[in-house]
Amino acid sequence: MDDYDKTCLESALVGVCNIVQQEWGGAIPCQVVLVTDGCLGIGRGSLRHSLATHNQRSESNRFPLPFPFPSKLYIMCMANLEELQSTDSLDCLERLIDLNNGEGQIFTIDGPLCLKNVQSMFGKLIDLAYTPFHAVLKCGHLTADVQVFPRPEPFVIDEEIDPIPKVINTDLEIVGFIDIADISSPPVLSRHLVLPIALNKEGDEVGTGITDDNEDENSANQIAGKIPNFCVLLHGSLKVEGMVAIVQLGPEWHGMLYSQADSKKKSNLMMSLFEPGPEPLPWLGKMVQLGPISDAKENPYGEDDNKSPFPLQPKNKRSYAQNVTVWIKPSGLQTDVQKILRNARKLPEKTQTFYKELNRLRKAALAFGFLDLLKGVADMLERECTLLPDTAHPDAAFQLTHAAQQLKLASTGTSEYAGYDHNITPLQTDFSGSSAERI
Amino acid sequence: MKIFSESHKTVFVVDHCPYMAESCRQHVEFDMLVKNRTQGIIPLAPISKSLWTCSVESSMEYCRIMYDIFPFKKLVNFIVSDSGAHVLNSWTQEDQNLQELMAALAAVGPPNPRADPECCSILHGLVAAVETLCKITEYQHEARTLLMENAERVGNRGRIICITNAKSDSHVRMLEDCVQETIHEHNKLAANSDHLMQIQKCELVLIHTYPVGEDSLVSDRPKKELSPVLTSEVHSVRAGRHLATKLNILVQQHFDLASTTITNIPMKEEQHANTSANYDVELLHHKDAHVDFLKSGDNHLSGSSREGSFKETITLKWCTPRTNNIELHYCTGAYRISPVDVNSRPSSCLTNFLLNGRSVLLEQPRKSGSKVISHMLSSHGGEIFLHVLSSSRSILEDPPSISEGCGGRVTDYRITDFGEFMRENRLTPFLDPRYKIDGSLEIPLERAKDQLEKHTRYWPMIISQTTIFNMQAVVPLASVIVKESLTEEDVLNCQKTIYNLVDMERKNDPLPISTVGTRGKGPKRDEQYRIMWNELETLVRAHINNSEKHQRVLECLMACRSKPPEEEERKKRGRKREDKEDKSEKAVKDYEQEKSWQDSERAAEFLTQNCLALRRGGKSILILIPLIFKHEIQDKPGVKFLTYGT
To answer: Where is the Integrator complex subunit 14 C-terminal domain (chain A) (predicted)?
Structure first.
């Protein structure tokens, strides 16, 4: 980021915008801390000027607020409230928060400008924005105190039906385990490090066990490092087994715990949050319907661990999995007609496929009210009949004539032959016995 | 995101009046003569679709895409209109699929060109459409029931897509007025009804379609608010493929879809099996799959505008697949897809490849020439999803390793045992409802939690904290004692385990007692066994409230385990104290404490019963009974036993 020698908040905010997006994309929540003396600059580029021209922006010089990523804008003023109120500075800064959809806050110094008061102001920011999220990770009676980092953000499921943001429980309860192949790279709202922490009797954090330069903490951390911790056990087994733990985060809200390797040696326990709701992953089905394998009649994973109850199959197949008929492009129609024709020329060997394709075309033509096509294909089959070589099997002519006749009946659209569920069946001939053997 | 937006309910109203039987005047060659065939054959004359056929197949294509991408919560009601309105399906989820609609359309058949045009009108269908929009869907009903006093939060909005052949702009105006009027009337009716909902917002999309080559008598008009409840737009579209294109654009607009073209898909040629050519396949999906491009304004870089289409497609390059289903990708979204050209060979090749369980990573060509893997195509249970993979920098860079934190210095975690524990506590779906003994619904997930609770009542985390879990001999007991209920066979196995341990103790077998932190050789052998028995007792005691059979295991354990003298002393003292206690207080007291098996007579009785049970089981099992019990049992009839000891 370039630095400038003139107060120009807009370009600073544009710079923030660009940096955050380039580095982290548009989905990661970011806290932006703006430290200012409360002076807004002068002339062009001053905040007053920026705000005054706010309504005259085009897409190319869009004002950087609201930030194009989830954000909180904290404005730290090196001035007290009285000083700011003497000009319109405070109003302008408040406009900034408003422009960021109200996400953020302004901090001012209580009393005169001195080191102590500035420290206390930043202390307030830390309390507000940087409090660690402490939770208890539970798996039955096995528990561990943990810090979840970064702090999980509240989530709104449907602003109309349920406008209250959901927050995750401080009890993170494991409900069971699933193989990584079965959970299959699920979409997640966010992911977080789960760090085991050591708490003293009062519940204050003693240390994360991470070795620090600080002498006093060092010994405490070393002790914490030597006390068995459930997180480490869980992490180790998840890693070895290639599994994830499903964790309940709140009512109808779940997530998963897994081992995440950062590099060759370093790896960590991570937690990802699924979208709240009864069925966050269609391939697992409803979360409340997941139960212990011991309740099943036979082990759904097989005795040799060679099968899996996942993924769940949906009731209805999607169009690409069920051979739907689409004739919007002429090529679609031509392909289907060609298929019939190709099989017609290989009668009686291809009797079954011939009728299968014929019936598929017939059904679609009836649904689309495209009766002319039925007549056309009937004509075509009759012509094929006349073109049969002398060597052709006698059954071929019988089947072609029969099929053509049936299509013509269907093309009237009125007779019983035009029923959608009616299927044209092969003509029973003296030869059909022998032809059936050849199929 | 709103569940009950206009897209929750879509009503198709398709004109079935005589003029819709007219040809669209766009020919389709269906008799494609293949090379090398007899010369001199004149191909059959091309045919053309009617306005009705064009309308129906375009609306079916709209539904196909919608059902592929939103199989739930986005519903279609299909109405055809002639001398009356024919409602072909309902809002129920079972009615929401192409097969149902196709069968219903086949039953209606094409319009009758000889019917009296005076009797027929699209108005019947439009009135029925408003009526059907007032009907509550199962999703709305469910949400209302769930929200109780906040039921009014559940919205009722919808969209009417009407395909007709209008006579003029004023005719269009008349249709709009009719819808407006009908909404007004039906909202009054709905206000006094429990099973109807007032329409809050209705989007009317009027599509005037006419044969190719004719002049349109109706002009296009963008969306306009006719009243706070009704907006309307008019599209004047030539029939044939133009109508299909229009509905394809509309389905994308209505459901916030975007297009991705997968490029460079290697495919084997049928004729030349050795060579492969590269193909492109265009997919539709929710536009959020492009969220990273949209926000960073990067979309114009890789997007290319397709002619005749309102929207751009983003090109992503196929990466040679590798087996990666055991890899957990950081995925920020997964969206169902629908191929634009579902039956084309490249499309079906791609979808079949994915349906067979393989995944494909997709690469995003960037301005700088650097390549970033940004998406993944993968199928789950017969549905294909476009996964958005995070390609930006992680905010969790260089995190401390777990080995550096709390418990990180401990090296003897029972990793393998916990792995086994996890496998036993894997989840599986229970789709049919189950009921508890009291008739209430059993929630499988609660059962899973119960099981975890049971399995962890006694679970030492490190090897040096446990003896019994390091002993193969204890496995038969340890693996079943955690169960909610035991079979007779389980009990016998537990007893066998205990007898086996007694035998080990008699033979003075060494135990895998940890010597960590102790100097010298560690505890003496009898001390080792005392530790082992104590631990086993802790495990079994943790489960005695599960069932009467669990208690029997404890009874066996207490009868057989060796006890140091001082413990016997303590228990005797305890009994004396107990005698003094008030009887009612005693009853409240956890009975497990009281059921001590000092009483040798009871021990004898117990052993007798179990020996008999073993005999009944027809298995010949060697039971070793400590000598101290010998005289107690000797006299019991029908018991044949072996004794040991000096």
So the answer is: 325-432
B448 closest CB neighbour out of A175, A225, A319: A175
Summarize pLDDT for B571-611 with one digit per residue, the tens: 555 555 544 444 434 433 333 333 333 444 455 555 555 55
Tell me whether residue B320 is in a domain.
yes
For residues A259 and A277, is the Cβ–Cβ distance under 8 A? no
ipTM of the complex: 0.87
B425, B533: one domain? yes
B319: containing domain: 259-299+311-389
pTM above 0.90, yes or no: no
Domain for residue B231, yes or no? Answer: yes
The 10 Å CB-count burial string (b at 16+, else e) for B533-547 is bbbbeebbbbbbebe
- Same domain flag for B83 and B207: yes
Residue B123: other Cβ atoms inside 10 A: 17
Does residue B337 sit in the same domain as residue B444?
Answer: no
The answer as to whether B642 is a domain residue is: no
A196 within 8 A of A208, measured Cβ to Cβ: yes
In chain A, what residues touch B391 (CB-CB under 8 Å)? 25
Contact in structure between A40 and A92 (CB atoms under 8 Å)? yes
**Closest C-alpha among B406, B425, B376 to residue A269:** B406
Interface contact B355, partner A, CB < 8 A: yes
For chain B positions 242-281, those within 8 Å of chain A (CB to CB) are: 244
Q: Name B21's Cβ contacts closer than 8 Å, sequence gap at least 6.
A: B50, B51, B52, B110, B111, B112, B113
pLDDT for residue A83: 80
Q: Which helix (H) or strand (E) is B40 found in, with range?
A: none
Whether chain A has a CB inside 8 Å of the CB on B33: the answer is no
Nearest CA in chain A to B346: A320
Residues B527, B505: Cα–Cα separation, whole Å? 11
- CB count within 10 Å of CB B340 equals 20
Q: Which residues neighbour B584 within 8 Å (Cβ) at sequence distance 6 or greater?
A: none
- B30: domain CATH number? 3.40.50.410
Confirm if B70 and B256 have CB atoms less than 8 A apart: no
Residue ranges for chain A with pLDDT beneath 70:
1-6, 200-218, 415, 431-439
